[in-house]
Structures are given as structure tokens and as C-alpha cells.
């Protein structure tokens, strides 16, 4: 989310979306991203667990929203590079007519979006908006071309708001988008937290590579983003603890990544 919309693709500076893709076992990254990713793993070996578990959280949350919650519209802001089980694939497998709008501003993400982010059903709609999430008013304006803002929408910020320039800016971004969607809409959000010294160090060292700074914030600050919304059980928890699959044995690992799903009254 660091490059300005329409900016040139840089292969000499690591980018969080591409590093994340590398940590998740994907192939859409450059050598500079692999170098930065390996350096991150050396500092915090749990980072690959966070990357993989964040996608599992997305899958469970979207499946709940498209199924039990009856949501047919999704606005995925800061989507990152397409990889396994993207939002539209999960949503349209449950609700074939689901409409999904992805938002990102990284040139590599948009290149792959054009090729890969296509509807999985004839009834569904999948598209993308090229925009920086620091411009939430523009995101809403562009999303209105596809989504019906008179009906509930699931708004998603999946591990991207650490790039917000400040905590006040983070709140402004989320609140602006939520103010535009109607009652019955949902917020799905997770982010890395500062309760792991290794993870904080990883983020600091990534900033030193020239990549866009990512700031882990206290759990309380992330939880406060849900103020005024009705949290879905089990509430605000480590993402590994949000409705883990019954087939997962033992106790889910607790990681420095917290999130929730909540309904706008």
C-alpha cells in the first residue's frame, strides 16, 4: 500500500504485499522481497505462521458472512497479491451472486488482479479499484459503481492498517468507509500488535530497507476501532482463535495478530 496510485513498479525496494506473498508460500515476488522476507523470518520465525493464519481467518470470516450473515457484497481494502482462497472465491462458493470489490494501489497487485481476480460464478461480480486507502472517500465513490450502498456490505481491512500514517488516520479511514455503508453491514479487521518484541523488531528492520513503515499497535487500539459495533462471537481475539475449524486439534496458537468481525447496528 506504499506506492502512489499509478506509480511505476519498483523491483529494487521490497514491498510488503510481495513479502507477504513469499511468507505465504506464493510465487509473486522478486529477489529483493525474498531477501527481506528471509531476514524477517530470522528475526521472527512466527511471521510465516501469522501470514498463513491470516488467510485462514479471512476464509472463515468470509464464509460466515456470505453464509450465516447473508452478506452478498464485499469491499476488500488493501487486498494484496492474489493467492489461495481469495475473498471472491470464498464468497462466491457460498453465495454465487456475491459482488466483490478489491482495492489496492500497488502496480504488481493490479497487474495480477486483471489476470486473476475474475468471478468464479456467472452470477457474481469481481472487480478492483486502484486507490490508496488513505483516500477512503474516493474508495467509496468508486465502489458505488459496483456495490449497492443501500444494502449491507462487508468492509474488510486485513492486516494492512499498520501502514496508516498515524492511529488517528487509521480511525479516520475506517470510520469514513463505515459511515458510508448502511445498518447491517459488517467490519472485518485484523492487524499485527505490539505484544511480541520479535515482531516489533521485524517491522522496524523492514522500515530500514526502504519499505513503507508498518507500525504494530497495542491490542487496545485495534479493539477500539470496533467501538459502536456489535461484535460477533467470539469477539476480539487472536485471529487463530476466531471460530477455528472443528478439525483443528489441540489449542490454537496465540499470535500477535488480533481481529474481529462486527456488525453495524
UniProtKB/TrEMBL annotation:
Signal peptide: none annotated. Keywords: Methyltransferase, Transferase. It comes from the Bacteria. GO terms for biological process: methylation. Its EC number is 2.1.1.-. InterPro entries: SAM-dependent_MTases_sf (IPR029063), SAM_dep_MeTrfase_SAV2177_type (IPR006764). Coiled coil: none annotated. GO terms for molecular function: methyltransferase activity. SUPFAM superfamilies: S-adenosyl-L-methionine-dependent methyltransferases. This is SAM-dependent methyltransferase. It comes from Nocardia jiangsuensis. The lineage of its organism: Bacteria, Bacillati, Actinomycetota, Actinomycetes, Mycobacteriales.
Amino acid at each position: 500500500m506504499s506506492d502512489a496510485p499509478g506509480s511505476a513498479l519498483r523491483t529494487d525496494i521490497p514491498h510488503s504485499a510481495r513479502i507477504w506473498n513469499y511468507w505465504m508460500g506464493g510465487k509473486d515476488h522478486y529477489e529483493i522481497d525474498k531477501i527481506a522476507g528471509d531476514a524477517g523470518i530470522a528475526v521472527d520465525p512466527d511471521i510465516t505462521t501469522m501470514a498463513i493464519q491470516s488467510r485462514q481467518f479471512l476464509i472463515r470470516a468470509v464464509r460466515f458472512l456470505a453464509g450465516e450473515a447473508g452478506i452478498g457484497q464485499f469491499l476488500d481494502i488493501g487486498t494484496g497479491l492474489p493467492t489461495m482462497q481469495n475473498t471472491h472465491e470464498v464468497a462466491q462458493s457460498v453465495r454465487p451472486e456475491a459482488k466483490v470489490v478489491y482495492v489496492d494501489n500497488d502496480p504488481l497487485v493490479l497487474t495480477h488482479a486483471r489476470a486473476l481476480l475474475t468471478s468464479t460464478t456467472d452470477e457474481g461480480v469481481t472487480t478492483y479499484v486502484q486507490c490508496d486507502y488513505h483516500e477512503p472517500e474516493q474508495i467509496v465513490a468508486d465502489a458505488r459503481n459496483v456495490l449497492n450502498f443501500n444494502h449491507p456490505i462487508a468492509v474488510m481491512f486485513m492486516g494492512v492498517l499498520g501502514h496508516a500514517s498515524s492511529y488517528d488516520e487509521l480511525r479516520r479511514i475506517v470510520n469514513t468507509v463505515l459511515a458510508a455503508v448502511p445498518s447491517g453491514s459488517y467490519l472485518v479487521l485484523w492487524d499485527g500488535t505490539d505484544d511480541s518484541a520479535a515482531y516489533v523488531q521485524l517491522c522496524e528492520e523492514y522500515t530500514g530497507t526502504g519499505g513503507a513503515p508498518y507500525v504494530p499497535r497495542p491490542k487496545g487500539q485495534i479493539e477500539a476501532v470496533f467501538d459502536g459495533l456489535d461484535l460477533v462471537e467470539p469477539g476480539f481475539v487472536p485471529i487463530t482463535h476466531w471460530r477455528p475449524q472443528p478439525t483443528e486439534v489441540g489449542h490454537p496458537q496465540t499470535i500477535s495478530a488480533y481481529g474481529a468481525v462486527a456488525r453495524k447496528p
